[in-house]
Design goal:
The protein is 6% helix and 38% strand. With 211 residues, the protein is mainly β. The longest helix has 7 residues, at 99-105.
Length: 211
């Protein structure tokens, strides 16, 4: 194979659209792909998925393996490393400071949100302290962003990030400042799905608009 400097079409630039599911996901519970539309449109038609809208600082997946060490007398460095743990996190910031997005960032149950802001009684998010033995709320996350491909077809090439079990575990700040937008920075801890022990999957796909 002849040497090439690289492939510029494999460089990905651009943000992703983020959807949060009401429940956890599995490899078989993800909505099916449609060859004639973007997966963003597919998810937008699913009642179980919420589009968080605008985000800031993009989407960041972080994989943190944990290795143990075996030391022996004959060498000063370790003789062997073995994998003893794994942690995966997904971080972003919700730029639309709605109560629906705050509920997702706080990992609250949907029961804590009531009413609509278009009425005089308004929409209310109950800031519950929880109770002993309360189960944390896990949700699935799917993000759809630009993928690798030829420039002419780049509008029809996308990368799908699917996380089966996600739990918001970091501090969430709610602010009202004169010179900064109100947004919710959120970090999700991803957990493996029971059957496959998989955190999720990343899919590169091409779709063709119907003519």
């Amino acid at each position: 194979m002849a040497y090439t400097r690289g492939t510029s079409t494999n460089i990905i630039v651009g943000a992703a659209a983020l959807f949060v599911a009401d429940t956890t996901l599995t490899s078989t519970s993800l909505p099916a792909f449609t060859s004639s539309e973007s997966y963003k449109e597919t998810l937008a038609d699913e009642l179980d998925f919420t589009n968080v809208g605008y985000t800031m600082n993009g989407l960041e997946l972080q994989f943190q393996p944990d290795f143990g060490e075996v030391q022996v007398d004959q060498i000063l460095d370790v003789a062997k490393l073995y994998k003893q743990g794994m942690q995966v996190n997904l971080a972003t910031a919700f730029a639309e400071a709605t109560l629906e997005n705050l509920l997702l960032a706080l990992a609250y149950s949907s029961d804590e949100l009531s009413g609509t802001k278009s009425t005089s009684a308004g929409q209310t998010l109950n800031l519950s302290a929880g109770d002993i033995g309360e189960c944390p709320v896990e949700r699935g996350i799917v993000a759809v962003g630009p993928g690798t491909g030829d420039c002419e077809d780049s509008a029809y090439v996308e990368r799908v990030y699917a996380a089966y079990r996600a739990l918001s575990i970091e501090n969430v700040t709610v602010s009202a400042k004169r010179d900064e937008p109100s947004m919710f920075e959120v970090s999700f801890r991803l957990l493996p799905e029971d059957t496959s022990a998989s955190y999720g999957k990343i899919i590169d796909r091409t779709w063709t608009p119907a003519t």
